[in-house]
């Protein structure tokens, strides 16, 4: 694990011999940025970090709150967003050094040469962070909700979702304006079976490279090197990294139903830690929490994993009700099953909607559907 002080903090470390990532530039997302012509260079190196290792030179300072996170630029952006919201709400956390960010390398970060489904599927980006939380090495854990299994480890709770970012997927290419404009045989890179199945369902003449893994910067570099002709990335991550200038076009919800909990950040703590639960309650965005609960109830009913192409999205519509849309597909995209529900925007109703939609699609799919 590596400890991160605030980016504006002095470059000394509170713990001798730790690795500290300093100077992380995370400007606010420019949501009004235009999406330029698709023939351009990719802005890959937006987020830069300098690494320094120093011996302890002063008395250890104990942080009031330690945030556990993965070490990718996007994960760090989410951790710093959490830190900034905590500081804004709680003056006792505003003092320099009161909040410490701890980087934890997960199984999903360590093994990049294999598809996620081949190395375990569930919990690949959360297991080690959960262990650190239970071992009291950290006080709260910041997760991308789409990475969080539908079950939580014993003695942990996830009482907080930050306001959700844009849930749509972004199309990025140097040679085409959209998926429809790609020539037959073009290669699209994605690590997501959800994206693969929906792409092939609509554009069966395209080829999909499945094990297109790595952080946002790595995937954009592979695209610029010509490994693939196009890729899809979550627009939420590009916005949080202030990298929307790379977007060629945005796919509508109708064209690409998002992953369950896409664009949502979840924050967990130990179930017996009332102080942390109190901090997190002050940050919770209830509309997001309810939408995520609905989508995860759908996913849990389907027993979804990284081997299963599943999409689900719940949102509040004009009349105040919840609209939920769910999808399951065969991995090759030849069959896509969809359903929807409308009901009250309330916890119990929305969880029941998600479960009921999942049961319907399970019944429609029948045995052997996902092995096709």
Describe this structure in words.
With 372 residues, the protein is of the alpha/beta class. The protein folds into three domains: 2-162 and 264-284, D-Maltodextrin-Binding Protein, domain 2 (3-Layer(aba) Sandwich), CATH 3.40.190.10; 169-250, D-Maltodextrin-Binding Protein, domain 2 (3-Layer(aba) Sandwich), CATH 3.40.190; 289-371, Double Stranded RNA Binding Domain. It is built from nine helices and 16 strands. The chain has helices spanning 73-89, 107-110, 127-134, 193-202, 216-224, 235-240, 274-281, 286-302, 347-365, and strands at 2-4, 19-22, 50-53, 65-69, 99-103, 140-144, 156-161, 169-173, 187-189, 207-209, 230-234, 249-250, 265-270, 310-316, 322-329, 336-343. The strands form four sheets. Strands 1-5-4-6-13-7 form a six-stranded mixed β-sheet, with helices on both faces. Strands 10-9-11-8-12 form a five-stranded mixed β-sheet, with helices on both faces. Strands 14-15-16 form a three-stranded antiparallel β-sheet. It is globular. 44% of the residues are buried. Mean pLDDT is 83; it is low at 5-40 and 46-60.
